[in-house]
Amino acid sequence: REFGSSSERAFEVEAMEAYMSGDTLRQAEVKSRLEGKPWFYPFYAVHAVSRFARDAAGAQDILNLVPAEDPYVMALVPGIAVVRGKYDDAYAYLAELRGLEDPMWDLFEAFLVTSGSVPPAPERAASLATRLAAADPLAIHQASFIPPYEDLTVEVAGFHRDYFLALLLIDLGRLDDARAILSELRSRDDFQYLGSLKRDAERSLEAEFQLASGDRAGALETLRSMETAVPHALTVWPLADMGRARFQRAELERELGDIETAKRFYNGLDEPWSPWDSYWRPLLYERMGEIAEEEGRVEDAIRFYSRLAELWVDADPVLHERRAEIERRLGALIEGQRTG
Q: What is the rounded CA–CA span in Å between residue 238 and residue 157?
C-alpha cells in the first residue's frame, strides 16, 4: 500500500486546480482519467478537491464515478456527506460498513459522533459505547482498514478504543464511568516514539470533565497545555489529530477573549492536509464569518458565509433554518457593501 509517487501527486494537483479554477473541461478530463486507475488516484482526487479546492459537491461528483471498494476511498464518503450537511447519508453509509465486521469502522463512527461537528445523537452514542466496550484491541489492530505501522501496537489500539469510549460516555453524561477510564489510561505506560499522544489524550479528557463542571477557564488552561507533537504517520488514525480538543480550544479562546488565538485555531482546522479536520469545516466558516462580521471585515465575512451556504445548499432539513440565517446575513452584507 505504498503510494504518493510523483505521478499521483501531480494528478492530485491537477484535480485541485481544475476544481479551483471552475474549468469544467479540465474537470471532465480529470474524471475521465480515473477510469481503470487504482484506488489511490480517486483517493487523491477526492481529497484534493474537497480539502484544498474546498468543493465538497465536486468531490462527491468524483466519488459517484468510482466504485468505493477500497477502505481508503470508503473512508472519505461519510466525511464528504458531513461537510455537505447530509448527516443521514453519512450514518446510513456507516451502518452499511458495520456489516464488514471491522471494529475500526466503529472507532471511525465514534470519532464522528463525538466530534461535535454533527448534532448530538444519544441513542447512536449509547449503541457505539456498548460495541466499543466489547471490542478486542487485538481484533482492532489486526482488522484495521488502515494497516498500522510498527509503532501502532495492539496497546495503542486499546488506548484508541478506550479514549473514544470515554468521550462517548462523557457525551452520555456517564461521567463517573468516563473518569474510571481516564484513571486507568493514566496508569498505563507511555508510548515510545509516539510523542505527546498519550499525554494529550489524557489532558483533553481532563478538559472535558472541567467543561462538564462549568470550569471553562480551567478547561482552557488544560487545553493550552496540550503539545500535539506526534509523528505524521500516526495520523492515519483519528486520535492523533485531536480535532475535538482543538475546536474546543478555539471556541474557548473566542469566548474568553483571545480572538487572535481563536482565529489561528479555526484556521488550523481549515488549512492542513488531514482529512480528519474536514468535519469541522461548516462550523469553522460559520465562526470565522461571525468574527469577521464583528470586526468589520466585510469581504472576509462574505467569503466565509458564502462558503458555508454553498456547502449546505442541499443539506438535511435540520440545517435549513441555520442556512437561511447565514443567507440572511450574507445578503445584508452584500447589500450594505453595494449601498455603502
A: 11
77 closest CA partner among 269, 274, 239, 275:
275
Is 202 in contact with 185 (CB distance < 8 Å)?
yes
Record the cell numbers describing residue 68, joined without a space. 468505493
Q: Is 119 helix (H, G, I), strand (E, B) or coil?
A: coil
Between helix 103-114 and helix 87-98 the angle, nearest 10°, is: 160
Specify the pLDDT at position 340. 75
List Cα–Cα distances, 111 to 78, 128, 132, 317, 324, in angstroms: 12, 10, 12, 23, 28
Surface-to-core class of residue 136, CB atoms within 10 Å of its CB (0-12 exposed, 13-18 middle, 19+ buried): middle
- Please spell the DSSP secondary structure of 246-299, one letter per residue: HHHHHHHHHHTT-HHHHHHHHHHHHSSS-GGGGGGHHHHHHHHHHHHHHTT-HH
d(CA 49, CA 153): 33
Which pLDDT score is estimated for 1? 38
DSSP string covering 195-256, please? TTHHHHHHHHHHHHHHHHTT-HHHHHHHHHT------GGGGGSGGGG-HHHHHHHHHHHHHT
What confidence score (pLDDT) does residue 5 get? 60
Cα 166 from Cα 152, distance rounded (Å) = 20
- The C-alpha atoms of residue 327 and residue 280 are separated, in whole angstroms, by 19
Q: Which residues of the chain have pLDDT under 50?
A: 1-3
| C-beta separation of 159 from 185 below 8 A | yes
Nearest partner of 62 among 45, 76, 75, 86, judged by Cα: 45
* Cα 188 off chain centre by: 27
In this predicted structure, what is the pLDDT of residue 37? 86
At 3 the pLDDT is: 46
pLDDT at 143: 76
pLDDT at 146: 65
Indicate whether this model's pTM tops 0.90.
Answer: yes
Tell me, what's the pLDDT at 2?
43
